[in-house]
Amino acid sequence: EVQLVQSGAEVTKPGATLKISCKVSGYTFTNSYMHWVQQVPGKGLEWMGLVDPEDGETIYAEKFQGRVIISADTSTDTAYLELSSLRSDDTAFYYCATSSGGSRAYFDFWGQGTLVTVSS
Amino acid sequence: DIQMTQSPSSLSASVGDRVTITCQASQDISTYFNWYQQKPGTAPKLLIRDVANLEVGVPSRFSGSGFGTEFTFTISSLQPEDIATYYCQQYETQPYTFGQGTKVEIK
After folding, report:
1. CB count, 10 Å around CB of A12?
2. pLDDT tier, A102 (very low <50, low <70, confident <90, very high otherwise)
3. A/B interface, count of CB pairs below 8 Å
């Protein structure tokens, strides 16, 4: 059974840096890209970027370029999303998601989501 | 970026009604198009990929159609458990983009 298990909810202050994790099991980690999706509470879904765990190559949406680092550790089958210079409008659920289609971006497996709250 | 315009933003229908949601892409995305269902407090769930391919275990009352820039999602007979927000998504070009969502409620 494919599982993506994310780290727990975080509360942090403006300007801080935060790293959340997504540990996978049930499939070969390097066979599929890992994506991250942001959802502000009560709002829609926004794709942030992806990492290819096989070679570490990343692609980011322009909105998040420069403030987000997506990475993958193949020794622990874990993907990471690092958020820096956090602002109140970064308060959101962050989901990792992957595809059984490898590089194809239909997201048939999702983590449970990590709520990040940025507040002074 | 490819804009995905989904309509309506919300709808209210009776149990057993046929429900239709549309999604328009700002440019041709061929069949690189998916539909998701999200219930409150949970992660989105992929219902239909590549326009019309129903995921395993998804009831056959759900269906999708379209090509290019115009896409349709249909629930043939609305059930109480279908109460959720539905999102379309394109993956023809990065950044992958979603529609703004359609909240489906029971009348």
Report:
1. 17
2. confident
3. 55
